[in-house]
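Much of what follows relies on a compact textual record of a protein's fold. The record below shows the convention in full:
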Amino acid sequence: MPTPRVSVLAVIRHPATGALLVNEFYDPTEGVTFHRPCGGGVDWQEPAAHALVREFREEFGLAVEVGARLGVIENIFTFNGRHGHEVLFLYAARLAEHAAYEIERFDCRDVPGEYAIWRAPSVPDDLIPLYPLGLRDLLAEAF
């Protein structure tokens, strides 16, 4: 029987614009583009905050400084016609190099075609959804 995946996501805000750093994904089954904060899987006996640092280094070649844990979200979803279940730790974080905030698009080193961009606070969820569900509420409480 499958078990939930444990993952960690970074809530990184652009200091000048308040934009959120997100991965942009496309679900071909639903025909929907959506955004999700950047992060990745937590390895066995790896603290979630350490996994976040590792994932940013591996995926984007970026150093991040991890702050407070903002919350935990259980995410049960369907992507590309397949069911998924994950437990997500969300942390406030910032890019260690200030110059990195000037980059508009971060291409993923691990997955060709995957990338991260800055999502403006004004982008409505009905235009491009922000996942996981419950993230908006968590962000409203934290900021």
Observations:
- Residues 48-60 form the longest helix (13 residues).
- The helical segments are 48-60, 135-142.
- Strands lie at 5-11, 20-27, 32-37, 39-41, 64-79, 82-95, 105-107, 115-119.
